[in-house]
Amino acid sequence: EPEVTQTPSHQVTQMGQEVILRCVPISNHLYFYWYRQILGQKVEFLVSFYNNEISEKSEIFDDQFSVERPDGSNFTLKIRSTKLEDSAMYFCASSPQGGNSPLHFGNGTRLTVT
Amino acid sequence: RKEVEQDPGPFNVPEGATVAFNCTYSNSASQSFFWYRQDCRKEPKLLMSVYSSGNEDGRFTAQLNRASQYISLLIRDSKLSDSATYLCVVNMRSLGGGADGLTFGKGTHLIIQP
Q1: Which residues of B70-109 are buried (b: 16+ CB within 10 A; e: fewer)?
Q2: Interface contact A55, partner B, CB < 8 A
Q3: What is the pLDDT of residues A48-97, one digit of tens each?
Q4: Which residues of B touch A100 (CB under 8 A)?
């Protein structure tokens, strides 16, 4: 069964540094997403991406964040000037259609900001 | 305010028993509903979509009550492997478009005891 893959599985960075989280969505999917989950809290939507542009973003997704699809397979989340409170699991997801389609999640990147 | 509320539990249930839990949602115009399962420090995995007429998948039955704005999940003949957190997910967008409408509940923690 095709999977969404994410790298790295764990990223440790110092406060103020930039990190790039990488994802390879399922190949025939058209919609891509980033979610995050702070330890012990709920899964929160960050951003959705379709047709090479952001389609929706939450209030969490401020100027510190950006996404990119640099080629036909990768989908990245860049976090600039990381803060302690950015420590969380970051999940990439994809779906073949938007809207009512369920999402297929990658296994996540655990980001630790020290 | 978009809200999906769940009883966090934990629900401690003996193996073989039947367990049910509910989830309430705030947007009466919500169009799509899902139950996801999340194991500790893992990604959410789709358990089942929830259809208006209710649906069953093996030991799992999902129901939707639009009038009272809740969905339910019933697990029969529970197995040790059913131990997990069950996430209620609702597309809050009235027209079913866009992933930012996918709002996650905080989850109900289920522990199946031998």
Answers
A1: bbbbbbeebeeebbbbbbbbbbbbeebebbbbbbbbbbbb
A2: yes
A3: 999 889 988 999 999 999 999 988 789 999 999 999 999 999 999 999 88
A4: 31-32, 91, 96
